Amino acid sequence: MKSFIFNPSEKWFKGEIILRYNLKTLLKLILFIIILPFAVLYYLGKALWQSACWLGKNLWQGICWLGRKLWPVICGLGLLLLAFWIWLKGLFRKKAKPAEDPQTATSDRRRNWMWLLILLLLLLGGILTWRSCTSKNNADEPSAAPAQVYDNSFDRVIVARAYLDGVQTTVSKDCPRALVGFKFINNQPVKDFNFTGMTYEQAIQVVAEDWKPLVVDNLSADVKLSEQQMAVVTLVAMRMGKNGFPRSTFLQKVNEGDFDAAGKWLLLQKKNGEIRKVGEEPTQYFYMLKLLWNNQLQIDDLLDLPMFSYRALPLDSLYHADGSCNFNEHIQQMLKKGNFTTPRTALEL
Protein backbone atom coordinates (compact mmCIF):
# COMPACT_ATOMS: atom_id res chain seq x y z
CA MET A 1 0.00 0.00 0.00
CA LYS A 2 1.41 3.39 -1.03
CA SER A 3 0.03 6.86 -0.05
CA PHE A 4 0.29 9.77 -2.46
CA ILE A 5 -0.69 13.42 -2.89
CA PHE A 6 -1.56 14.70 -6.37
CA ASN A 7 -1.87 18.37 -7.37
CA PRO A 8 -3.29 18.86 -10.91
CA SER A 9 -4.17 22.50 -11.71
CA GLU A 10 -3.43 23.56 -8.12
CA LYS A 11 -6.10 21.21 -6.76
CA TRP A 12 -4.87 18.76 -4.17
CA PHE A 13 -5.99 15.16 -4.06
CA LYS A 14 -5.03 12.63 -1.47
CA GLY A 15 -5.40 8.88 -1.76
CA GLU A 16 -3.76 5.44 -1.66
CA ILE A 17 -2.57 2.94 -4.25
CA ILE A 18 -3.13 -0.70 -3.37
CA LEU A 19 -1.00 -3.29 -5.19
CA ARG A 20 -2.31 -6.84 -5.15
CA TYR A 21 0.29 -9.53 -5.74
CA ASN A 22 -0.44 -12.91 -7.28
CA LEU A 23 1.63 -15.19 -5.04
CA LYS A 24 1.83 -17.94 -7.66
CA THR A 25 3.16 -15.53 -10.28
CA LEU A 26 5.52 -14.00 -7.75
CA LEU A 27 6.82 -17.45 -6.82
CA LYS A 28 7.40 -18.30 -10.49
CA LEU A 29 9.27 -15.03 -10.95
CA ILE A 30 11.48 -15.69 -7.94
CA LEU A 31 12.19 -19.25 -9.09
CA PHE A 32 13.01 -17.98 -12.58
CA ILE A 33 15.44 -15.43 -11.16
CA ILE A 34 17.09 -18.14 -9.05
CA ILE A 35 17.20 -20.83 -11.74
CA LEU A 36 18.29 -18.60 -14.63
CA PRO A 37 21.96 -18.21 -13.55
CA PHE A 38 22.29 -21.95 -12.90
CA ALA A 39 20.70 -22.77 -16.27
CA VAL A 40 23.07 -20.38 -18.02
CA LEU A 41 26.04 -21.92 -16.20
CA TYR A 42 24.83 -25.45 -17.03
CA TYR A 43 24.38 -24.87 -20.75
CA LEU A 44 27.56 -22.80 -20.94
CA GLY A 45 29.50 -25.56 -19.19
CA LYS A 46 27.89 -28.19 -21.42
CA ALA A 47 28.79 -26.21 -24.54
CA LEU A 48 32.37 -25.72 -23.33
CA TRP A 49 32.68 -29.42 -22.47
CA GLN A 50 31.33 -30.54 -25.85
CA SER A 51 33.61 -28.05 -27.59
CA ALA A 52 36.60 -29.32 -25.62
CA CYS A 53 35.71 -32.95 -26.45
CA TRP A 54 35.25 -32.11 -30.13
CA LEU A 55 38.51 -30.17 -30.21
CA GLY A 56 40.39 -32.94 -28.41
CA LYS A 57 38.95 -35.62 -30.69
CA ASN A 58 39.79 -33.71 -33.85
CA LEU A 59 43.24 -32.76 -32.59
CA TRP A 60 43.98 -36.41 -31.87
CA GLN A 61 42.70 -37.38 -35.32
CA GLY A 62 44.99 -34.72 -36.77
CA ILE A 63 47.94 -36.05 -34.82
CA CYS A 64 47.15 -39.58 -35.99
CA TRP A 65 46.87 -38.33 -39.58
CA LEU A 66 50.29 -36.70 -39.25
CA GLY A 67 51.58 -39.92 -37.75
CA ARG A 68 50.25 -41.96 -40.65
CA LYS A 69 51.16 -39.60 -43.47
CA LEU A 70 54.03 -37.35 -42.44
CA TRP A 71 55.69 -38.98 -39.45
CA PRO A 72 58.33 -40.92 -41.42
CA VAL A 73 59.30 -37.73 -43.26
CA ILE A 74 59.37 -35.61 -40.10
CA CYS A 75 61.31 -38.30 -38.23
CA GLY A 76 63.84 -38.61 -41.05
CA LEU A 77 64.36 -34.86 -41.31
CA GLY A 78 64.68 -34.59 -37.55
CA LEU A 79 67.30 -37.32 -37.44
CA LEU A 80 69.25 -35.66 -40.26
CA LEU A 81 69.14 -32.27 -38.55
CA LEU A 82 70.15 -33.77 -35.22
CA ALA A 83 73.03 -35.68 -36.79
CA PHE A 84 74.18 -32.55 -38.65
CA TRP A 85 73.98 -30.50 -35.46
CA ILE A 86 76.02 -33.06 -33.49
CA TRP A 87 78.61 -33.22 -36.27
CA LEU A 88 78.80 -29.43 -36.52
CA LYS A 89 79.11 -29.06 -32.75
CA GLY A 90 81.93 -31.60 -32.65
CA LEU A 91 83.68 -29.89 -35.56
CA PHE A 92 83.70 -26.49 -33.87
CA ARG A 93 84.78 -28.04 -30.57
CA LYS A 94 87.77 -29.67 -32.22
CA LYS A 95 88.79 -26.39 -33.84
CA ALA A 96 88.37 -24.44 -30.62
CA LYS A 97 90.23 -26.98 -28.46
CA PRO A 98 93.04 -28.70 -30.33
CA ALA A 99 94.34 -30.33 -27.17
CA GLU A 100 92.11 -31.77 -24.45
CA ASP A 101 92.95 -33.43 -21.21
CA PRO A 102 91.65 -36.98 -20.53
CA GLN A 103 89.00 -35.76 -18.08
CA THR A 104 87.45 -33.41 -20.65
CA ALA A 105 87.49 -36.13 -23.31
CA THR A 106 85.69 -38.51 -20.95
CA SER A 107 83.07 -35.83 -20.21
CA ASP A 108 82.53 -35.25 -23.94
CA ARG A 109 82.05 -38.96 -24.55
CA ARG A 110 79.45 -39.10 -21.79
CA ARG A 111 77.59 -36.19 -23.35
CA ASN A 112 77.68 -37.94 -26.73
CA TRP A 113 76.25 -41.08 -25.15
CA MET A 114 73.47 -38.99 -23.57
CA TRP A 115 72.60 -37.46 -26.95
CA LEU A 116 72.57 -40.91 -28.51
CA LEU A 117 70.27 -42.21 -25.76
CA ILE A 118 67.88 -39.27 -26.24
CA LEU A 119 67.92 -39.87 -29.98
CA LEU A 120 67.03 -43.55 -29.52
CA LEU A 121 64.20 -42.68 -27.11
CA LEU A 122 62.77 -40.15 -29.57
CA LEU A 123 62.98 -42.70 -32.36
CA LEU A 124 61.26 -45.36 -30.24
CA GLY A 125 58.49 -42.95 -29.20
CA GLY A 126 57.92 -41.96 -32.82
CA ILE A 127 57.66 -45.57 -33.95
CA LEU A 128 55.19 -46.43 -31.17
CA THR A 129 53.05 -43.36 -31.96
CA TRP A 130 53.05 -44.16 -35.66
CA ARG A 131 52.10 -47.80 -35.05
CA SER A 132 49.30 -46.90 -32.61
CA CYS A 133 47.78 -44.46 -35.09
CA THR A 134 48.12 -46.69 -38.12
CA SER A 135 46.85 -49.80 -36.34
CA LYS A 136 43.59 -48.06 -35.44
CA ASN A 137 43.27 -46.74 -38.95
CA ASN A 138 43.94 -50.12 -40.51
CA ALA A 139 41.13 -51.65 -38.48
CA ASP A 140 38.64 -49.40 -40.28
CA GLU A 141 40.25 -49.62 -43.71
CA PRO A 142 38.62 -51.86 -46.29
CA SER A 143 39.90 -55.40 -46.57
CA ALA A 144 40.48 -57.26 -49.82
CA ALA A 145 38.22 -60.20 -48.91
CA PRO A 146 34.46 -59.45 -48.65
CA ALA A 147 33.82 -62.76 -46.90
CA GLN A 148 36.31 -61.93 -44.15
CA VAL A 149 34.94 -58.42 -43.73
CA TYR A 150 31.44 -59.89 -43.50
CA ASP A 151 32.50 -62.21 -40.68
CA ASN A 152 34.21 -59.39 -38.81
CA SER A 153 31.28 -57.00 -39.20
CA PHE A 154 28.40 -59.18 -38.06
CA ASP A 155 28.61 -58.07 -34.43
CA ARG A 156 27.85 -54.58 -35.70
CA VAL A 157 24.88 -55.96 -37.63
CA ILE A 158 23.51 -57.39 -34.37
CA VAL A 159 23.80 -54.00 -32.66
CA ALA A 160 22.18 -52.14 -35.57
CA ARG A 161 19.32 -54.64 -35.85
CA ALA A 162 18.72 -54.37 -32.11
CA TYR A 163 18.41 -50.58 -32.40
CA LEU A 164 16.39 -50.53 -35.62
CA ASP A 165 14.08 -53.50 -34.97
CA GLY A 166 14.25 -53.98 -31.21
CA VAL A 167 15.01 -56.88 -28.90
CA GLN A 168 12.07 -58.64 -27.30
CA THR A 169 12.40 -60.67 -24.13
CA THR A 170 11.58 -64.07 -25.62
CA VAL A 171 10.47 -65.69 -28.85
CA SER A 172 10.67 -69.26 -27.71
CA LYS A 173 12.43 -70.98 -24.85
CA ASP A 174 15.15 -72.27 -27.16
CA CYS A 175 15.75 -68.99 -29.01
CA PRO A 176 18.57 -66.84 -27.61
CA ARG A 177 17.38 -63.47 -26.38
CA ALA A 178 19.79 -61.49 -28.58
CA LEU A 179 18.52 -63.01 -31.80
CA VAL A 180 14.90 -61.99 -31.54
CA GLY A 181 15.64 -58.78 -33.44
CA PHE A 182 15.93 -61.11 -36.42
CA LYS A 183 12.27 -61.87 -36.90
CA PHE A 184 13.09 -63.80 -40.04
CA ILE A 185 16.28 -65.50 -41.15
CA ASN A 186 16.12 -65.63 -44.92
CA ASN A 187 12.32 -65.56 -44.77
CA GLN A 188 12.18 -68.33 -42.19
CA PRO A 189 10.95 -67.43 -38.67
CA VAL A 190 13.71 -67.35 -36.08
CA LYS A 191 11.71 -69.55 -33.74
CA ASP A 192 11.83 -72.38 -36.29
CA PHE A 193 15.59 -72.64 -35.88
CA ASN A 194 16.85 -75.10 -33.31
CA PHE A 195 19.24 -73.29 -30.97
CA THR A 196 19.12 -75.90 -28.22
CA GLY A 197 22.46 -76.28 -26.44
CA MET A 198 24.12 -73.46 -28.37
CA THR A 199 26.08 -70.61 -26.84
CA TYR A 200 25.34 -67.05 -27.88
CA GLU A 201 28.37 -67.01 -30.20
CA GLN A 202 27.30 -70.26 -31.84
CA ALA A 203 23.75 -68.98 -32.36
CA ILE A 204 25.08 -65.77 -33.89
CA GLN A 205 27.23 -67.86 -36.21
CA VAL A 206 24.14 -69.72 -37.41
CA VAL A 207 22.46 -66.46 -38.33
CA ALA A 208 25.60 -65.02 -39.91
CA GLU A 209 26.17 -68.09 -42.07
CA ASP A 210 22.52 -68.13 -43.11
CA TRP A 211 22.69 -64.58 -44.50
CA LYS A 212 26.24 -64.83 -45.82
CA PRO A 213 25.48 -66.25 -49.30
CA LEU A 214 22.93 -63.52 -50.06
CA VAL A 215 25.43 -60.79 -49.19
CA VAL A 216 28.84 -62.14 -50.19
CA ASP A 217 27.82 -64.00 -53.35
CA ASN A 218 26.25 -60.86 -54.79
CA LEU A 219 29.23 -58.63 -54.02
CA SER A 220 32.05 -58.23 -56.49
CA ALA A 221 35.29 -59.84 -55.33
CA ASP A 222 37.10 -56.61 -56.19
CA VAL A 223 34.97 -54.32 -54.05
CA LYS A 224 36.66 -53.09 -50.87
CA LEU A 225 34.39 -52.28 -47.95
CA SER A 226 35.05 -51.23 -44.39
CA GLU A 227 33.35 -53.19 -41.61
CA GLN A 228 30.73 -50.47 -41.16
CA GLN A 229 29.99 -50.41 -44.89
CA MET A 230 29.68 -54.20 -44.95
CA ALA A 231 27.33 -54.05 -41.96
CA VAL A 232 25.13 -51.56 -43.82
CA VAL A 233 25.15 -53.75 -46.94
CA THR A 234 24.05 -56.68 -44.77
CA LEU A 235 21.29 -54.61 -43.18
CA VAL A 236 20.10 -53.55 -46.64
CA ALA A 237 20.08 -57.17 -47.80
CA MET A 238 18.03 -58.16 -44.76
CA ARG A 239 15.56 -55.36 -45.39
CA MET A 240 15.23 -55.86 -49.17
CA GLY A 241 15.20 -59.65 -48.99
CA LYS A 242 16.65 -62.33 -51.23
CA ASN A 243 14.72 -61.07 -54.27
CA GLY A 244 15.01 -57.31 -53.91
CA PHE A 245 18.67 -57.06 -52.88
CA PRO A 246 20.35 -58.73 -55.90
CA ARG A 247 18.49 -56.55 -58.41
CA SER A 248 18.80 -53.29 -56.44
CA THR A 249 20.57 -50.26 -57.89
CA PHE A 250 22.28 -49.86 -54.52
CA LEU A 251 24.11 -53.18 -54.95
CA GLN A 252 24.98 -52.31 -58.55
CA LYS A 253 26.61 -49.03 -57.49
CA VAL A 254 28.47 -50.74 -54.65
CA ASN A 255 29.93 -53.29 -57.05
CA GLU A 256 30.96 -50.44 -59.35
CA GLY A 257 32.80 -48.82 -56.45
CA ASP A 258 30.65 -45.69 -56.65
CA PHE A 259 29.81 -45.45 -52.95
CA ASP A 260 28.43 -41.90 -53.14
CA ALA A 261 25.89 -42.92 -55.76
CA ALA A 262 25.13 -46.10 -53.81
CA GLY A 263 24.12 -44.00 -50.81
CA LYS A 264 21.55 -42.17 -52.91
CA TRP A 265 19.96 -45.51 -53.84
CA LEU A 266 19.36 -46.63 -50.27
CA LEU A 267 15.63 -47.09 -50.85
CA LEU A 268 13.12 -49.71 -51.91
CA GLN A 269 12.48 -50.43 -55.59
CA LYS A 270 9.92 -52.34 -57.58
CA LYS A 271 10.79 -55.29 -59.83
CA ASN A 272 11.11 -52.98 -62.83
CA GLY A 273 13.51 -50.70 -60.96
CA GLU A 274 11.05 -47.92 -60.20
CA ILE A 275 11.30 -46.30 -56.80
CA ARG A 276 8.63 -47.67 -54.51
CA LYS A 277 6.47 -45.24 -52.57
CA VAL A 278 6.77 -46.11 -48.90
CA GLY A 279 5.32 -44.92 -45.64
CA GLU A 280 6.79 -43.36 -42.55
CA GLU A 281 8.71 -46.31 -41.06
CA PRO A 282 10.66 -47.32 -44.21
CA THR A 283 11.56 -43.68 -44.84
CA GLN A 284 12.96 -43.31 -41.33
CA TYR A 285 14.65 -46.72 -41.51
CA PHE A 286 16.55 -45.99 -44.71
CA TYR A 287 17.40 -42.51 -43.44
CA MET A 288 19.27 -44.19 -40.58
CA LEU A 289 21.00 -46.54 -43.03
CA LYS A 290 22.14 -43.54 -45.07
CA LEU A 291 23.61 -41.91 -41.97
CA LEU A 292 25.55 -45.11 -41.27
CA TRP A 293 26.63 -45.50 -44.90
CA ASN A 294 27.88 -41.89 -45.08
CA ASN A 295 29.70 -42.25 -41.72
CA GLN A 296 27.64 -39.41 -40.28
CA LEU A 297 26.75 -41.88 -37.54
CA GLN A 298 28.73 -44.85 -36.25
CA ILE A 299 27.13 -48.18 -35.38
CA ASP A 300 28.90 -48.04 -32.02
CA ASP A 301 26.91 -44.85 -31.31
CA LEU A 302 23.68 -46.86 -31.59
CA LEU A 303 24.62 -48.85 -28.49
CA ASP A 304 23.54 -46.04 -26.17
CA LEU A 305 20.52 -44.75 -28.08
CA PRO A 306 17.04 -45.92 -27.02
CA MET A 307 15.79 -48.57 -29.42
CA PHE A 308 13.30 -47.25 -32.02
CA SER A 309 14.14 -43.62 -31.15
CA TYR A 310 14.46 -42.88 -34.88
CA ARG A 311 10.71 -43.51 -35.23
CA ALA A 312 10.01 -40.11 -33.65
CA LEU A 313 11.90 -38.18 -36.34
CA PRO A 314 9.66 -35.90 -38.46
CA LEU A 315 9.77 -36.84 -42.13
CA ASP A 316 9.99 -33.25 -43.35
CA SER A 317 13.23 -32.70 -41.39
CA LEU A 318 15.25 -35.69 -42.59
CA TYR A 319 16.69 -34.29 -45.81
CA HIS A 320 17.99 -31.02 -47.20
CA ALA A 321 16.70 -29.55 -50.44
CA ASP A 322 19.56 -31.19 -52.37
CA GLY A 323 18.62 -34.64 -51.04
CA SER A 324 21.49 -34.94 -48.55
CA CYS A 325 20.77 -36.16 -45.03
CA ASN A 326 19.99 -33.54 -42.42
CA PHE A 327 21.76 -34.61 -39.23
CA ASN A 328 21.67 -31.44 -37.19
CA GLU A 329 21.86 -30.99 -33.43
CA HIS A 330 18.07 -31.16 -33.03
CA ILE A 331 17.86 -34.58 -34.70
CA GLN A 332 20.83 -35.84 -32.70
CA GLN A 333 19.07 -34.84 -29.48
CA MET A 334 15.81 -36.49 -30.61
CA LEU A 335 17.64 -39.78 -31.20
CA LYS A 336 18.75 -39.74 -27.56
CA LYS A 337 15.16 -39.69 -26.31
CA GLY A 338 12.86 -42.70 -26.09
CA ASN A 339 10.92 -45.05 -23.86
CA PHE A 340 12.82 -48.22 -24.80
CA THR A 341 16.08 -49.46 -23.36
CA THR A 342 19.35 -49.21 -25.25
CA PRO A 343 20.91 -52.05 -27.30
CA ARG A 344 23.78 -52.13 -24.80
CA THR A 345 21.36 -53.00 -22.01
CA ALA A 346 19.12 -55.26 -24.08
CA LEU A 347 22.04 -57.27 -25.46
CA GLU A 348 23.81 -57.23 -22.08
CA LEU A 349 27.01 -55.94 -23.65
Automatic annotation (TrEMBL):
InterPro entries (UniProt xref): Lysozyme_dom_sf
Keyword Endoplasmic reticulum among UniProt keywords: no
The protein's name: Lysozyme
Species of the source: Candidatus Scatocola faecipullorum
GO biological process entries: defense response to bacterium; killing of cells of another organism
Gene3D superfamilies reported for this sequence: 1.10.530.40
Keyword Chaperone on entry: no
Gene Ontology MF terms: lysozyme activity
Keywords, sorted A to Z: Antimicrobial, Bacteriolytic enzyme, Membrane, Transmembrane, Transmembrane helix
Membrane spanning stretches: 21-44, 70-92, 113-130
